[in-house]
Amino acid sequence: MLPPRTDRRALWLSLLASSVALLALLFSGLVKQSRPVPMHDLQLAAGEKLKCVSYAPYHRPGQTPLDAETRIERTQIAADLAALAEITDCVRLYSVNQGLEQVPEVARALGLKVLLGAWIGYDPVINAIELERAIALANAHTDVVRALVVGNEVLLRRERSEDEMRALIRHAKTHSQVPVTYADVWEFWTRHDSLAAEVDFVTVHILPFWEDDPVDIDLALAHVADTRRAVARHFGDKPILIGETGWPSAGRQREHARPSRVNQARYIREFVHRAHDEGWDYNLIEAIDQPWKRRLEGTVGGHWGMLEADDLYPKFPLAGPVAERESLFGPIGGALIGGLLACLLAATGRRTHLLRVSALTATGAVGGVIAVLHWEHAHLAYRDALEWSLLGGVAALSGLVPLVLARWHGEPIPDAARARHILWTHTRLRSKAPSLGLLRGLLLFAAAVAALLLWVDPRYRDFPTLLYLGPALVFGVIGWWRSGITATERSCAAVIAIGVIGRWSTEMTNPQAIAWLLTGLALALPVLLVRAHQHEQR
Asked: Which of 41, 132, 338, 528 reaches 20 to 30 Å from 261, CA-CA?
């Protein structure tokens, strides 16, 4: 039985108002992203370049240091370093395996210096081989190698003890013809400060984004300056190298610390200006985006580079305003296509009237914008065929919702179990309500899994708001006109509500956490609060 005409009118008005409001909110954010943001221009002296940048060559598809069979060809290293020689005087390496042993020789021809790294991990046998190779390479290229870095964040990862690192550093000091250092997060250096006596200079990592209490971009440079001052005071006359500092251009926001192209440009410009003004020695992380790091650190891990991974094109200039988004063509096109498809489907059905068609057209436009934004995010975030299949499947289901909705006329939506029965027994359908029931059940389950994972393991997971925003709009409105809620759906809705509230409770001012909270509640509350027999289908 259809709801009374007044209820159906309220439904379409609610859907129209919600869709228009969300569409306005999305485009206001996109317009803001497209506006160039003025910031400090980095004016280097004639011939002056960045002091040093971290270089890893694993930026092409399929390349990863996690695969022991990976080897980078000399031609790629030469092309990479030629691009970097335009912006820096030095590159920092973290290992001498997989083709990286070719870097010093190539760097010499380009006039680059090298901070040569020996990777130290769990296996003492591999560590010994790596260190001997690094020492030999440094000694063979003393005109190029500025220093030998024995281990990177080994104490942070708890892969070796302080005494074991002391022994490795002493061995390197005994046999190396270049200065020797060890690199770790500044807090671990101050906790293990006895190692300072073993090195020629202290190499500390200061990354405001990754601090236990993430630092807002507005306070990031002051945090770096204060931390470096404290470290210098702690170690007295020992020279200090800021071995890693930088800002990511994409990924999950951590409290007030937001990854973005604009924030990355701002941080790099302001830091380099301050460092050159005060005479800090530094190394920026990093030269080129590393897609493989998404496997370890989520989306944000792959987007610390100043150059794009595919074409080595700079992400931002060193002078002039910077915009987050270069064009609105994609989202506008998505809105037009989505709105047109929904309008055609709605206008050719039965019981067609202006209010219903307008509401469904607006909902389709929202779905089109979200589809474009999700496609953009997927290219930044998805790591393998499995994620493209699973998350892409969820995105496809979400994209179907406004189109299936366009063939819906206000009937109560049966529960997913009954919808499956109707479809599988080939009963003649009066509308697409059973399909909406199936979509609703599948998306509630997927959202429950996502909410649970993000709640218990949030550090490297993106907020999946774009995957569920369209369904949240639709079911957050029409869910109050539904019937036949199952125990399974209530369970999924409860998990969603608990998960999004739990995640938000630890990041209450994080806009991404707030958006995920609202999206999850829009999905869950109609399931949890609506009366099961409000419009029982007869």
From this structure: 338
What sign does the dihedral 13-398-507-522 (CA atoms) show? positive
The reported pLDDT for the residue numbered 412 is 53
What is the distance between the alpha carbons of residues 196 and 239, in angstroms, rounded to a whole number? 10
pLDDT tens sequence across 288-324: 999 999 999 999 999 999 999 999 999 999 999 999 9
Q: Both tokens of residue 191?
A: 């906790």
* Ranges assigned E (strand) in 96-239: 113-118, 145-152, 180-185, 202-205
Q: Which one, of 198, 224, 220, lies nearest residue 282 by Cα?
A: 224
Q: What torsion do the CA atoms of 100, 101, 103, 105 make, to the nearest 10 degrees? A: -160
Tell me the C-alpha distance between 502 and 496, whole Å.
Answer: 10
CA-to-CA distance for 114 and 424, rounded, in angstroms? 66
pLDDT at position 432: 43
Confidence at residue 351, expressed as pLDDT on a 0 to 100 scale: 65
Q: Which residue, among 258, 254, 251, 247, has the nearest Cα to 316 in the 3D structure?
A: 247
Q: CB–CB of 490/444 below 8 Å? A: no
CB 402 within 8 A of CB 338: yes
* Identity of the residue numbered 187: E
Average pLDDT over residues 214-223: 97
Residue 519, amino acid = T
**Residue 164 CB-half CA count within 13 A:** 14
Structure tokens at 311: 């074409």
C-beta separation of 524 from 496 below 8 A:
yes
Is the separation of the CB atoms in 297 and 259 below 8 Å?
no
State whether the Cα torsion 294-298-301-302 is positive or negative: positive
Angle between helices 465-478 and 354-381 (to 10 degrees): 160
Average pLDDT of the chain to the nearest whole number: 91
Sequence letter at residue 94: Y
Split at pLDDT 50, 70, 90, the class of 532 is very low
In the block, residue with structure tokens 């289901």 = 397
Neighbours of 479 (CB within 10 A): 22
- 22 has pLDDT over 50: yes
pTM for the predicted model, two decimal places = 0.91
CA–CA distance, 183 with 193 (Å, rounded to integer): 12
Task: Please tell me the distance from the alpha carbon of residue 244 to that of residue 240, in angstroms, as a whole number.
Answer: 12
Do residues 221 and 206 touch, judged by C-beta distance below 8 A? no
Long-range contacts formed by 393-397: CB under 8 A, 24+ apart? 394/443, 394/446, 394/467, 395/371, 395/467, 397/439, 397/442, 397/443, 397/446
Q: What is the mean pLDDT of residues 511-525?
A: 97
Q: Which residues, at least 6 apart from 29, have a Cβ–Cβ distance to it below 8 Å?
A: none
Q: Say if residue 320 is exposed, middle or buried (CB neighbours under 10 Å; 0-12, 13-18, 19+).
A: exposed
